[in-house]
Design brief:
Strand content: 5-15%
Order of helices and strands: HHHHHHHHHEHEEHEE
Radius of gyration: 39 Å
Structural class: alpha+beta
Strand order of the largest sheet: 1-2-3-5-4
Distance between the termini: 24 Å
Length: 391
């Protein structure tokens, strides 16, 4: 669906003009409705042009808000059939209005010039008198008002037909909302990953370098004071703390987003990740390959968060990460995909509760078009499986 255009502010004059324009096209609407029923596959070119013209007319003159629903042959046929019925009613109303205007002209001609253009018995004989003309003015005004209100009613029917057959259905609106939310979530995750990369670079190029410089300065000061100085013990302790600070900064930068993910790919990053993990974790990836950057980023965070949960909550003795590439089932119509399975022999009972790590991973994987399942019975073992498309 296309975005809805701005709603035009309609006025009574614009509504009357729009209803009059729509009334005169009903024969064409009826013919093209039949054409749309015959050609069921795609909307016939002139049919689409006619419906597009009606859309512009109802938006600009009748104040309708077009939701941009896709035009199908069935939708075009039903709308044009409804339009033809509304057009017939509009033609009758316009005919009554034209007859009333002719009656006014004929009455004035009979009264002023004694011309016998009779449209009523009252105009016969000696012509229309002044008293007769004055008596007809309020009657004519009432009839004109009713006729114009009838034309407004035709305009409202015209707008209702467009709203019924050209507006998106509830399922289409929901599908558009889901698509919009999916795109927004994907863009948000991309922005978050970019921000994590910036933080990692700032830590690596800024804070970490300053911490290394502090350690070097402390070592220089320790050598300068000599072994007999009373300050040497404090300087040695400061040197150890500086080394620990550098190590901690490297670990934090790694957890935020490892730079090697962009330069070397997912396989060496996962190998480094499992080597840092407690309990002992094995990586089983027989044929490592480079994956799309978004897929590698998503899988890294899934594996990192899952292993963090194992270390904090599972009480496991060992864990394993298995990575397999393959293709989706033929009946699904999907292309290549990657599957990652994280298992541990811990106590189990893991659930993706709202606000916790697994729930966030489920949303991240869904935004990338994949699925995440958790199988964690009480007593274990726990298995987290992720499937992501690689196209």
């Amino acid at each position: 669906m296309d975005p809805a255009p701005a709603v035009w502010r309609s006025t009574p004059a614009r509504m009357l003009w729009g209803a009059a324009l729509g009334a005169v096209t009903w024969p064409l609407d009826l013919v093209f409705a039949v054409v749309s029923l015959v050609r069921r596959r795609t909307p016939f070119g002139p049919v689409g042009s006619l419906v597009a013209w009606h859309r512009r007319r109802t938006v600009r003159l009748l104040g309708w808000s077009d939701g941009g629903a896709a035009l199908t042959p069935a939708r075009a046929a039903r709308y044009l059939a409804a339009r033809a019925a509304v057009g017939v009613v509009g033609t009758l109303v316009l005919g009554l209005l034209a007859y009333g205007l002719f009656a006014v002209v004929a009455g004035l001609a009979s009264w002023l010039f004694d011309v016998r253009l009779t449209v009523d018995e009252a105009f016969q004989g000696d012509g229309l008198t002044t008293s007769g003309l004055l008596a007809m003015i309020p009657i004519g005004a009432i009839l004109l008002y009713l006729d114009l209100m009838g034309l407004v009613g035709v305009a409202l029917l015209d707008r209702s037909a467009a709203a019924r057959w050209l507006a998106p259905s509830r399922s289409e609106r929901l599908a558009a909302q889901v698509e919009s939310l999916t795109v927004s979530r994907t863009e948000l995750l991309s922005a978050l990953d970019a921000e994590r990369g910036r933080i990692e670079r700032d830590l690596h190029d800024g804070v970490q370098q300053r911490a290394v410089a502090v350690g070097l300065l402390v070592n220089r000061a320790r050598r300068a004071v000599g072994a007999s100085s009373s300050a040497v013990l404090l300087l040695e302790q400061a040197a150890r703390e500086a080394e620990l600070l550098v190590t901690d900064l490297r670990d934090v930068a790694w957890r935020v987003r490892p730079t090697a993910l962009d330069t070397h790919g997912l396989a060496p990053v996962l190998a480094e990740l499992v080597s840092r993990t407690t309990p002992p974790t094995a990586l089983d990836w027989p044929d490592p390959v480079r994956l799309p950057p978004a897929v590698e980023t998503t899988l890294y965070y899934v594996v990192a968060e899952s292993l963090t949960n194992v270390a904090k909550h599972a009480g496991a003795a060992q864990a394993e990460v298995r990575v397999r590439a393959g293709r989706a089932r033929r009946d699904s119509g999907a292309g290549p995909e990657i599957r990652v399975e994280i298992t541990d022999d811990g106590r189990g009972g893991a659930l993706p509760r709202p606000g916790h790590g697994l729930a966030g991973l489920t949303g991240r994987v869904a935004a990338a078009g994949g699925t995440l399942t958790v199988d964690s019975p009480s007593g274990g073992p726990t298995r987290v499986e992720v499937t992501l498309p690689c196209e």
